[in-house]
What does this fold into?
Amino acid sequence: MHTLIIDTDPGADDVIALLFALAAPESLAVQALTTVAGNVPLAKTSRNARLACEWAGRPKIPVYAGADRPLQRTPIYAANIHGSEGITGVKVHEPAVPLAEGHAVDYLVRTLRAAPEKSVTLAMLGPQTNLALALEQAPDIVRGLRELVLMAGAHFNGGNITPTAEFNLFADPHAAEAVLKCGVPITMLPLDVTHKILTSDERIARLRGLGNKAGTIVADILDAYAPQEMKHYQMPGGPVHDATVTAYLLRPSLFQGRRIHVEVDSREGMGFGQTAADWHGSLNRPANVNWIADGDAQGFFDLLTEHIARLP
Ligand code: BDR
Ligand code: CA
It folds into this structure.
């Protein structure tokens, strides 16, 4: 069982990751969602996070809005992939339940300080700005953290926003730098694995065939989102990046990785936001990340479909 906070920038694949996580209350005790600017600006990511809670039938999960911009760099967004509202393929509306009061960073500091030692897992599905701000304000919060599980990074086949960088790290490399150094156990699910876990017509049809509202939402998102990624990367299916974090939390045995040393490049230039992942241990530096390089694609889609089936 994980006591879980999910930091997110929904984002089409974030919404799928959230629905997936909210469908597993026996394994994932979701305390709150914290939002950050990323795929779209903060007001939209915060609305979309509340929509995910509503669609999952869990509208009372508190959603705290956090950082509206990266630590240092100019903000970037990915509306070209996720649509202008951030959830391509589905209609959005203003959710009935408002945002929780207070800033996400204050929520993180307060909650992690009060938590028993090594008790809270933080899943991070967007730029890592909120945790970096919380660490700067209150470095002692690491005590309350059990593990960080991040969708971030790229090593073997290059990036998705530049030739070298993955979006979440490119969007705030300075925040990622602080997080990678914080000393809490970190698992990263980079493009190396998310580009191996791809949709197919049959996988989307199974989700749609569930016949519930959540299955239709996930299938509509994937039908709109996957073709763009397939076209851009010439892949046979679309990745569901952030949802691999949920799958990892629920069933880590679906994934294979290695504990290695990882740094992020925060110097402006071609390598800005790139992960240097020392897969072969060439530098002989201490491992700070469990870097996931492979996963069971069919196992992932079976687990996702099984969980989405439980939702309204
Ligand atoms: C990551 O970038 C975002 O566009 C997605 O939501 C995901 O978190 C993939 O690089
Ligand atoms: Ca995301």
User: Anything to note?
Assistant: The pocket of calcium ion (ligand 2) is lined by residues 9, 11, 14, 38-39, 125-126, 242 (CB under 6 Å). The chain has a mean pLDDT of 96. Residues 247 and 303 are 7 Å apart (CA to CA).
